[in-house]
Amino acid sequence: MEWEGKVDSAKLVCAASGQPIAPGALFFSGxxxxxxxFVRQDYAETAWAEVDKTPFISWWRQRxxxxxxxxxxxxxxxxxxxxxxxxxxxxxxxxxxxVYVVLLYLVRARKLRFRDSVRDAEGHSFLVIExxxxxxxxxxxxxxxxxxxxxxxxxxxxxxxxxxxxPIVEDG
Length: 172
What we know:
Layout: E1 26-34, E2 37-44, H1 45-48, E3 58-63, H2 77-87, H3 93-108, E4 113-119, E5 125-131, E6 136-141, H4 147-161
Antiparallel strand pairs: 1-2, 1-3, 4-5, 5-6
């Protein structure tokens, strides 16, 4: 699958009003899967309460970068964990590839634990992953991505979550 040009990057424009999101303003981002790609939609904090959240795979609150703020790329592991849970049973190849890359990050970030690698009767490879917080195991199929697919999915993930400042993670 050709991934070039299939991911919209953040525009810092409210998807509800079309108005720019001001530097330093709090806003919300939601991730949807539409037309075989992951699309990030940003919403002003004032518009968020009226937004239908059912189409979102994941959503998070953050602050728009200011012009003088240092460029900082932080990955919100909790948001990625939400994406993993929403997509772990996906049957469409783009989603399977995306969730596999998210899974690898979560293992590296120690949010999930690698337990084993197994093959089924047809020779498909699966990772067995432990979710200690939920006390369960997941068996996730390796989609067998090419190097180009891996790079494209990683770029897709970074485009989806990148804004320039660390997301605000609320304790709830």
